[in-house]
Design brief:
Layout: H1 2-18, H2 28-38, E1 43-46, E2 57-68, E3 73-83, E4 90-94, E5 100-104, E6 107-110, H3 111-114, E7 126-127, H4 141-159, E8 165-167, E9 173-184, E10 189-196, E11 200-211, E12 215-218, E13 223-238, E14 241-256, H5 257-276
Antiparallel strand pairs: 1-2, 1-5, 2-3, 3-4, 5-6, 6-7, 8-9, 9-10, 10-11, 11-13, 12-13, 13-14
Helix pairs in contact: 4-5
Amino acid sequence: MKLHFTLILFFVSISTFSKADQYACLTDDMAKQASDLMHDEKELVVFCNPCSNLPKLKIKLDSVRLEKTRYCNGMVAYGLVIEGNAKGEKIREELDLAYTWLNVDGVGRNVALIMNLPVYDVGEPFFWKSLKTYELPVAKKKQLKLRDKLVDSIEMEIALQKQVKASNFYDSWVQVDSVQFMYASESNTVEFTYFLVGSEEKKYELFLDELSEFKLEIANRELDYLNTSGTGFVQYTIQGKIRSNMPYRYHNLPVRKSEAQALIRQLNQLQSLTRNYRFK
């Protein structure tokens, strides 16, 4: 039963990652936030990074509003194309927030990321005027020192995570002997490895560039979850052999209540820092 469930989840996850639409259909809360964000904008850019050979489309806006689209409620832009295909034409463009960009201090920023929504393969920020790729400023000594300090602090907090429980490969809650944290600067990923009773390991590999912020979810008197969503993998190893390594979109990391607030603050600081600076 476990293998059957895992295979189903694998194909659902791959299907979710490979399709173009991410936030064309919106909940009421997302629609309100998007409407507030784009209400006073004069221009926006539509750019679908996974879509092959489609240039950036810059639109001088007449209006942006929530409408009933073909399948659901979504944001729709009306305006004049000033850069890209159909330049000089008036258009009605149904928007996907993952492929919609706004001018933030001269740099094109992704709307879904501004709203802190988990995304997949949205592309890089760009200079608004030229539409050329924007490169993050190189981290200097101050940023390097802060990053290393955050990583060290998270490692220390995670090392205290004993006497917590986590679900194992068979979907049973078992005791955790210890937890290990690692950060990979090359891929900007974090790994949380839970060493469970019975010679089993459960490892979360999470991509900071494509996660929502970490939030606190209360489990019980002793336990909280570090909750986030976005690109990540969960790997189960039993007696040194990998039993499963599957993509998941939603992640709940069990931690002791006493360290939860500090861990969330530090992880969100690390995520923000690596999104705003380029570390060589």
